[in-house]
Amino acid sequence: MNFTAQGYARLNRNLNPDICVLEGGYSIEGALPYTNLGIILAMAGMDTSHVREPDYDPERFRQSEDMNNYIEDICDQAVQLFADREKMKKEYAGKETVVERKQIFYDTTGFQVAETRLYKLCPHCPGTSEVVAEGLHQHLHWILYSIQQLSHVPQKGA
Q1: pLDDT surpasses 60 at 157
Q2: d(CA 31, CA 38)
Q3: Beta carbons of 114 and 92 less than 8 angstroms apart
Q4: Would you state the pLDDT for residue 155?
Q5: Residues 125, 140: contact at Cβ < 8 Å?
Q6: What is the per-residue pLDDT across 91-139, written as a single tens digit (0 to 9) for each?
Q7: How open is the CA angle 20-24-29, to the nearest 5 degrees?
Q8: pLDDT at 149
Q9: Which residue in 30, 29, 37, 28 sits closest to 8, CA to CA?
């Protein structure tokens, strides 16, 4: 995540966690002590307004209007999916599998991925999600189960 020390402090103040994991992956001199200080002060309920990285430049952390619009669109889609959940249950009733295919292009690396998602539906539990992704001669395959459904997972030989 591209957070500033103030961003981490605000996040922790809003989440009000009981424990924290101090962040890594930041410059040891330029950011790490400040992000961790922001987290610790916020958890202690102390003032974090003066915690800033020495090389902080707000322009480096500005999000583009395109990104704002994209995030707003994704949020609108999520709200619409939730609103349509009963309609979708009826639409998919009786189906065992729903398949979704898409191409994903990661512009920062020029990496192209072909992804297939198989949703195996179950009337007794949330079902399973199977993800198959291929790109650059790599093949990844995941099957995702929810805790609630493990009692419904078919056993080998059954």
Answers
A1: no
A2: 11
A3: no
A4: 52
A5: no
A6: 888 888 889 999 888 766 677 888 898 888 887 777 888 888 888 777 6
A7: 120
A8: 47
A9: 37
C-beta separation of 38 from 48 below 8 A:
yes
Which of these, 28, 34, 46, lies nearest to 8 by C-alpha position?
34
**Cβ contact 59:4 at 8 Å:** no
Mean pLDDT (whole number) for 5-30: 80
What distance in Å separates the CA atoms of residue 36 and residue 31, rounded to the nearest whole number? 9
Residues forming a β-bridge with 141: 132
Q: pLDDT by residue (tens digit) across 33-48?
A: 888 899 999 999 999 9
Residue with tokens 């009981």: 18
- CA end-to-end span of the chain: 45
CA–CA dist 36, 21 (Å, integer): 9
Only one residue has tokens 């999520």, namely: 78
Tell me the residue length of the chain: 158
Strands annotated E in 6-110: 97-106
**List of residues 6+ apart from 142 with CB closer than 8 A:** 130, 131
Prediction pTM value: 0.46
Q: How confident is the model at residue 107, as a pLDDT?
A: 67
